[in-house]
Amino acid sequence: MRKIFLFMDTIFNKVDAKGRVSLPSDYRAIVKELSTEIVCYRSLSAPCIEGCLEDTLDKLATDIENATDFFSETQDNLTNLIFGDARRFAFDSTGRIMLSEKLLKHAQITDAAVFVGKGRKFQIWNPQNWEKEEARIRAEVMKNRPTLKTAKEAE
Amino acid sequence: MRKIFLFMDTIFNKVDAKGRVSLPSDYRAIVKELSTEIVCYRSLSAPCIEGCLEDTLDKLATDIENATDFFSETQDNLTNLIFGDARRFAFDSTGRIMLSEKLLKHAQITDAAVFVGKGRKFQIWNPQNWEKEEARIRAEVMKNRPTLKTAKEAE
DNA sequence: TGGTATAACATGGTAATTTATGGGATTCAA
DNA sequence: TTGAATCCCATAAATTACCATGTTATACCA
Question: What are B97-113's pLDDT values in tens digits?
Answer without folding.
Answer: 999 999 999 999 999 99
